[in-house]
Write a structure and sequence with these properties.
The protein is an all-alpha fold and about 325 residues long. It has helices at about 1-35, 45-55, 65-85, 100-120, 125-155, 160-170, 175-195, 210-215, 220-245, 255-285, 295-315. The protein has 11 helices and no strands. α1 (about 1-35) crosses α9 (about 220-245), α4 (about 100-120) packs antiparallel against α5 and α5 (about 125-155) crosses α6.
């Protein structure tokens, strides 16, 4: 009976991730429209886009291999698996002990690797260009995110998200220099991982600025729907990972109806605030030139390294 209860909480979290990820992207897009004085299509527009793509037929290039057809399902499946592990509504997830933060970063990296392969699979110039840019950005973001997370894991003496959340939640979060530097680094990395301005612009299809969009230009129908839905879930999960590592308050410690309800309330509040922060950053910054991204992501790695140095020197 107890196992069924854990499975119910796990299924509930997956349903929340699948449902809230498009709404979160729609919320960010709506705020961005408002900040630029434009009329918004509403927070439900991503749902309409996904539904429209699922109805359309898939058009495949003649030379598309199994990698091109397999990648959309792998990217979406990987995002769902990660959504089962990160404590979002509860600390007591059934699958949480099966993977720590290093595994989560590795799963995202594997999904990105298949996306790059799929971008080059057809042999178009845009796909190869987008894949090379994506892997260049990945080579800069992944060390930075690991350094930021290692700094947090040093505080909890574990790379398990369950132990990190429990340490900060039950032991009381103390604002230390190491945590502040790690949080700044994590924010910069999440902007890059989510493909947001100033690193990438998901709303553009210009040759000189495309990164992620260049890799998926040849996709259509349900394949494109799965990739876009997976990208929304990825953005949602990186935000949830930041909440679990730096703002775990509100996550249910016990799986009672009351605590889960409070947890859902805090989730809505936190993601609404994150959306505002993302829009403020995007409104205040312009899309960077590709060769200046090394400075932006180098700053993220520097902040993460400073956080780790502060931990060993000051704590």
């Amino acid at each position: 009976m107890r196992s069924l209860h854990f499975i119910f909480i796990e299924v509930l979290q997956v349903m929340i991730v699948l449902a809230l990820a498009p709404i979160f992207s729609g919320w960010v897009d709506m705020l961005k429209c408002w900040s630029q004085g434009r009329t918004s299509a509403g927070v439900l527009q991503p749902y309409r886009n996904i539904a429209k793509l699922f109805i359309k037929d898939v058009v495949l290039a003649e030379n598309a291999s199994w990698i091109f057809r397999f990648t959309p399902y792998f990217v979406f499946g990987t995002a769902v698996v990660v959504g089962c592990v990160i404590p979002i509504i509860s600390m007591n997830l059934f699958l949480a002990p099966s993977a720590d933060i290093i595994v989560i970063v590795a799963l995202f990296a594997t999904a990105r690797f298949f996306m790059a392969l799929a971008g080059m699979d057809i042999g178009t110039a845009f796909g190869g260009m987008g894949a090379s840019r994506e892997m260049m950005i990945a080579s800069l973001t992944e060390p930075a995110i690991l350094m930021a997370i290692f700094t947090v894991s040093l505080e909890s003496k574990s790379t398990s998200l369950y132990h990190i959340v429990q340490t900060f939640y039950l032991g009381g979060m103390v604002l230390r220099p190491s945590i502040v530097f790690a949080a700044i680094a994590f924010i910069l990395v999440v902007i890059a991982e989510a493909g947001r301005v100033p690193v990438d612009n998901p709303a553009t299809h210009l040759e000189l600025t495309m990164v992620h969009e260049a890799m998926i230009l040849e996709y259509s129908g349900r394949h494109l729907a799965l990739i876009q839905w997976g990208s929304m879930i990825r953005f949602f999960l990186f935000s949830a990972l930041g909440i679990a590592c730096f703002l775990p308050w509100g996550i249910a410690a016990a799986d009672t109806v009351g605590e889960i309800s409070v947890s859902l309330f805090f989730i809505v509040i936190k993601f609404a605030v994150i959306g505002v922060v993302v829009v403020l950053i995007e409104t205040g910054l312009a899309k960077m030139r590709l060769f200046r991204l090394t400075e932006f992501l180098g700053a993220a790695f520097l902040m993460a390294t400073l956080g780790m140095i502060c931990f060993f020197i000051l704590e």
